[in-house]
Structure formats: C-alpha cells, structure tokens
Amino acid sequence: MLEFAILGLLHESPMHGYELRKQLTTKLGAFRAAISYGSLYPTLRRLQAAGWITEESGAPAADAPLLTNRRSRVVYKITAEGKERFQELLSSAGPETFDDPGFGVHFAFFARTDQATRLRILEGRRRRVEERREGMRDVLSRAAERLDAYTLELQRHGLDACEREVRWLEELIAHERSGRPPEVTTPSNLPPDQPEQ
Amino acid sequence: MLEFAILGLLHESPMHGYELRKQLTTKLGAFRAAISYGSLYPTLRRLQAAGWITEESGAPAADAPLLTNRRSRVVYKITAEGKERFQELLSSAGPETFDDPGFGVHFAFFARTDQATRLRILEGRRRRVEERREGMRDVLSRAAERLDAYTLELQRHGLDACEREVRWLEELIAHERSGRPPEVTTPSNLPPDQPEQ
DNA sequence: CCCCGATGTATCGGGGCGATACATCGCACG
DNA sequence: CGTGCGATGTATCGCCCCGATACATCGGGG
Predict the structure, then answer these.
(1) pLDDT at residue B192, as a whole number
(2) Please, what CATH class does the domain formed by A1-58+74-113 belong to?
(3) Which of A2, A12, A94, A110 has the fewest CB atoms found within 10 Å of its own CB?
C-alpha cells in the first residue's frame, strides 16, 4: 500500500524521504491523513532489500549547500525491477475491506492505470460501500429504538457519507464507460495509458 | 481507543467476545469499519491485566445448551476500577490527528458524556477538519495545474467531504449550545448526564 | 445423515503510527 | 552580529491494530 505509493512517486522522479512524505501527504491526502516517518523509512528499507529501489547518497545539485559531514540527504531511485513491480501492483485491486486506504492510493495513480482496471477498481469500491450502506440502513431501521440519539445521529451521518460516495462512484463509472477517461474540469499533464521505459 | 469502547459497552452490560465485536461494529461503524479479533482479544487481555475487567467462565443461562467440554464462552465484566477508568476516558479528548477514529468512539458515547466535554470534543474535531480542509484548498488552488485529472478529482471529493463534515459539526455545536442536548428526530433511551453506579 | 453457516475463542506475522532524537540551514529580530 | 527558531532532513522504538488462519460447537435444511 505504502509500497505501491512510493514506487508510483519514485517512478515519476527520484526523491529523498522528506520530499517523498510531502508528496504522499498531498497525493493521498483525500483518503488517508499523513504518512508517518515510522512507516516511511522502514518501507524504504524493505523496498531497498527487495531490490525495487536504490539509495544514492545525495549528489549535490548546482545550488546545493555543501554538506560537509555525514548524514546528508539520501536520494531514492526506482529500479527496473521496481517499475515491473509497480506495473504489477497497478492492476491488482486492493483488499475487500471498506475503510481500506488502498482504494485512495490506487485512485491517485489512475492516470497510469488502464481503463479496464480503473473500472474494476471503481466497481469493487462501489460494491463495498454499498454493503456498508446496507448495514447502516439495517441498523437505522431495525434497531433504531434500542440506540441513543447520538449513536443514531452518528449512524445517520455515516449513512449519508456512504450514499454520497456511491453517487460519486456512479458518476465516475458512468464517465469511465462513456469513453472519455479523464475528468470534467481541468486538463491533465500526465496522459493515461502510456507506460514508459 | 478500543479500550475506551470496550469499557463503555461492558459498562452497559457484561458480554462475551463475539457479542462485543458485533456491538462494536454497529456502534462505531460510522467512522471505523470492523473491529478485528486480532485487536479485540489482546485488548481484553490488556484490560484484564490492568484490572479494569474480569473474566468469568460463562455461567450457562436457563436456555444454555450444555457445554460439555472446555472452551465454552467467556463472559467479560467491568470492575469498579474499570468504571473509574471509563469516566476518566470520557472527558479526555482524543489525539490531534485528523483521521483518528477516536472521535467517532467518543461521539458514540456522548449520551454518557457531560455537555462541556461534548462541546470541547466537537470543537476540537471541527478545528482539525477545518485544518485539513484548508490544506486541500491550498492544493487545489495553488498546485492544480501540476496534478493529473484523477488526483484533482480525488482532492475535490475529499474537500467536499470535509466541508460537509464541518457543516455537520456546526449544526451539532449550535444544537449543543442552545440547551437541548439530544438530537432532532428520534427519542433516546439513555438519558444523558446520568452517570450510574 | 451430512454439510453448511452462524456462533465462539484465540494466535501470529506484518505493518502503520505517534513520540522522540538528532543534525543542519536560512533568516528574522533584537 | 549573534542567536535562536522554524523548516528541512534522517532515523528508531514500542505499541497497537489488522487480515489470515485455526479450531470447536451448534442448529437446521437438503
């Protein structure tokens, strides 16, 4: 999950950890909150051990302030195997749980995903949210009198959010089916379906 | 967090693990998805070690099917110290992160929380969601042209959800301030501000 | 009669998180 | 001019939670 996101970002350009975290936070910010260093660095270590990325002791750019001592910045770079791995993860759907942040991560890289996979992931997500929605409806209709007002309100709010997300997914799915893959308002700078290398 | 929720449920009545999980799933279902047994049982173990709850080898009720062998159901029960602990947790606000499920848990037990604490927690939550909302607005306004269409759409959807939650919280806060603590539509069976024992 | 789904208890490995520590850099304010 | 603070930057530790899995019992329907 984090592995997928990191590979995706490093696929675009090499980076050091701090920058990586910032990009992760904004890119995945919609479904996840902040990525902790306690997750980031161990994951980088794992990726490195698996051979998906390599570590380079930061080559100072033209404007680099001279880093006299050890512990300078470390730049991570994706390998060919890492790119393969990323392509593999691109078409694999996340697990079947509702609050899985994996959906948000996948969505964030939809520009690099082929349309069939996009559709599959969107529909999978819709199914899970619908299931959750039904569960909440059951609670609200069948057990309403056994719950206090605050719990009910919480349930109502959750149900509302589910319904809204289902509608959002419906729109995305319809849009996806009707040919034109990208979105409504703004132009993209990453043309889809163009795996480089 | 789980600790808090378990104490809250056992405060209402003793239960065994399976039932506990079901109740947790519906009660906290709005902000969290499902509680795993891999969390539940270790937490029960911890609570037991701390002395907040006790374990009773399931006394068979009148209709109990005779459980001949070992491994029958285990009923957990809150202790006096556990009730103290719960009262202590009731008035403590969760951590300062956005996607902290602690808010949902606290909210689920608002019927047992005094109004001042309710207000404090609601306002704390509002502040955090507002911060997140501002962050997303910045991304959308400042870095819009540097992101692909899907990432933008994800951001838009997240921003929308934040705005909606802020509005929801505003309503709850206003309602809370204007005297009448419970909610709008349905009657409650747990009168607030009545700590038993 | 037999199997299946619900009930029920429990463990294990893996991975994410908050807290924390530490070092450097640029700059604003006194 | 210097100093101290906030941003940049790397890294670890312990805690907790999750998904997968195993196992046992029970009621009922084919």
Answers:
(1) 47
(2) mainly alpha
(3) A12
Q: Per-residue pLDDT tens for A54-109?
A: 998 754 443 344 444 445 788 999 999 999 999 999 988 766 677 777 888 899 99
Look at residue A45 in the predicted model and tell me its pLDDT. 94
**Which CB contacts under 8 angstroms, 24+ apart, belong to B11-16?**
B11/B78, B11/B82, B11/B83, B11/B86, B11/B112, B14/B56, B14/B75, B14/B76, B14/B77, B14/B78, B15/B75, B15/B76, B16/B58, B16/B73, B16/B74, B16/B75, B16/B76
In which residue are the tokens 């997914």 written?
A169
CA closest to D12 C1', residue: A38
Q: Say whether residue A164 is in contact with chain B using an 8 A CB cutoff.
A: yes
A16: Cβ under 7 Å from strand D?
yes
- Neighbouring CB atoms inside 10 A of A184's CB total 11
Give the pLDDT of residue B56. 83
CA–CA separation, A121 and A130 (whole Å): 14
A14 neighbors A74 (Cβ within 8 angstroms): no
**CATH topology assigned to domain B1-58+74-112:** Arc Repressor Mutant, subunit A (1.10.10)
B119 touches chain A (CB under 8 A): no
Pick A183's closest partner by Cβ from B146, B153, B188.
Answer: B153
On chain D, which bases lie within 7 A of the protein's CB atoms?
A: 8-14, 16-21, 24-27
The more confident residue out of B194 and A25 is A25
How many Å apart are CA A154 and CA B125, to the nearest integer? 14
pTM of the model: 0.82
| Low-confidence residues of chain B: pLDDT under 50 | 59-70, 184-197
- Cβ of B154 within 8 Å of Cβ of A31? The answer is yes
pLDDT at A60: 45
Kindly identify which residue of chain B lies nearest to residue A191, measuring between CA atoms.
B148
Share of chain A above pLDDT 70, in %: 81
With CA atoms as reference, the chain A residue closest to B149 would be A188
DSSP 8-state symbol, B95 = -
